[in-house]
What does this fold into?
Amino acid sequence: MLPGFSVTSIQDTSPLGVTDGITARVVKEGTEEDPSVVMELTFAPGAAFGEDAHSLPEILLVTEGVFSDGHGEYGKGTVIVGSPGSVHFPQSKDGCTVLAFHPAGR
It folds into this structure.
């Protein structure tokens, strides 16, 4: 391993229940030195989070399926950037997987 790098595998993490039909695997937890958080979110078909208001930025990458935010549907490869003050309604009709990056923590 090169100095200054760390490696974590999603397969080495345990899924945590977020809400009915949605699980998260935290790949990188924030620290005092680096508050950024990276997690994989998996939505079962029909799963919905409800209103999700952000005080900090969030970047999502759809890696499988189709993710919806209550206003549009976004397929594999789509990057969605939420600014502080943004609100969306995360859900998936047929199920999806999303990589979520919170650069300022959560």
